[in-house]
Amino acid sequence: MNILHCDMDAFYASIEQRDHPELIGRPVIVGGLPGSRGVVSTCSYEAREYGVCSAMPSKQAYHLCPQAVFIPPHIEKYIRVSQEVFAILHRYSPVIEALSIDEAFLDVSGCHRLFGSSAQIAKLIKNDVLEETGLFISVGIAANKFLAKLATNLSKPNGLMELSNDQLIEILPSLPVSEIWGIGGKTAQRLNKAGIYTAADLLEFPRVKLESLLGSNTDFYIQLCSGQDSRPVLSRSDRKSIGNEITFPIDLSDQKEIEQLLLDLSCQVAYRLRHASLIAHTVTIKMRTPNFQTFTRSQTLQQGVDADLTIYDIALNLYHKSGLTGKHLRLLGLSCSRLLERNLEQPALFADENDILDKIIDDMKDKFGSSAIKRGSLLHNKSRNR
Ligand code: TTP
Ligand code: MG
Question: Cα of 232 to ligand 2 centre, how many Å?
């Protein structure tokens, strides 16, 4: 059992409780204020008892829990704490894959001589995090990433769980499909409609029919439902690609709308590249038609790219040449691969003229959140606002 999944408890809300001790033990909601059109970023476990959760409109949260203390987010502070937590994680393994501001996988296979068993390493991490930040982190231990994350979720808050094979046999079959990593709300609904509610239901379902529900990911989910996951923990420099995709609420064929979404995806992916100080030598777009056929188109470039509009130009060109313009699509994706550390590549002879604008946009996103600023042409994106 060499994979650890670490995730801070109620991250933003716990930081606010730590900094305002009078809030300890009370329902605290970080996010938009109740009078605004904002949403909940997160809330303390006390507020979760009333049904409040992340991404819920703040108005609804207020309705469920009017006595909660609402606090606007202080992102810069949360980033600072995140850096402290990641510095602690780096003490215990060089193989770390960050998943978000407060969550990471560690592969500790090579670390036992120095620090002891996986459970001992988890305890050391929990102690250090509590001592140095005053916050709780939950740690799940298992043989692979999927199970380690499951162990964390099962043990939260202030959890530490090593998922044994016996526990696995007991827990996994009845696990709701909505709890399986990567199965979002929409897919879970589709599965439920077909009578698949749990991992065991999914494994019993005829494979051919399953494929019409899960497409090219069918085998991957079958493996997860059997407790298998062969994906390695990838530290940043091992990362093979960075990508985002959108499944549309209804199939889209409007070329302008699809182009806008490509621009949106290009900006999201380019931002992630720049944040990781990486540049990409291959840009790939992925399109899935309503009958679940998936098409990809790629371009490999001599000079690495990380600018919003450069990536968009390439993606747009790939879309125009794909033979799928005007066709209905149910999913659109964009990914960048053949990644190189930015400072390892010779700078381009002429700096990309978009660099300065990207830098300004990045600074604003870092300060105010990734939805705080968008390119003007994205503001009227109908599908995103549906
Ligand atoms: P999570 O780890 O998903 O949530 P959490 O740490 O608040 O609670 P727990 O892990 O104990 O369930 O997300 C980490 C932070 O990311 C969270 O504190 C706030 C932010 N966040 C958002 O801003 N919006 C969201 O929709 C989610 C899910 C998280
Ligand atoms: Mg968390």
Answer: 21
Task: State the distance from the centre of ligand 2 to the C-alpha of 60, rounded, in angstroms.
Answer: 22
Residues recognised as catalytic:
103
Residue type, 349: L
Q: What is the assigned CATH class of domain 169-225? A: mainly alpha
- Which residue's alpha carbon is at the smallest distance from atom 8 of ligand 1? 10
Instruction: Quote the ligand 2 centre to 327 CA distance (angstroms).
Output: 40
- For residue 206, is the peptide bond before it cis, meaning its omega torsion is within 30 degrees of 0? no
Peptide bond into 57 cis (omega under 30): no
The identity of residue 214, as a single letter, is L
| pLDDT tens-digit series, residues 84-140 | 999 999 999 989 988 888 999 999 999 999 999 999 999 999 999 999 999 999 999
Instruction: Kindly state which CATH superfamily the domain 241-385 is placed in.
Output: DNA polymerase, Y-family, little finger domain (3.30.1490.100)
Beta bridge partners of 294: 288
7 lines ligand 1 (CB under 6 A): yes
Question: Would you give the DSSP letter of residue 348?
Answer: P
Domain boundaries, the chain: 1-163, 169-225, 241-385
Token output for 331: 């999913």
Residue with tokens 């043989």, as numbered in its chain: 143
For residue 134, the 8-state DSSP code is S
For residue range 161-172, list pLDDT tens digits in order: 999 988 999 999
What do you get for the CA distance between the two ends of the chain, in Å? Answer: 44
- CB 102 less than 6 A from any atom of ligand 1: yes
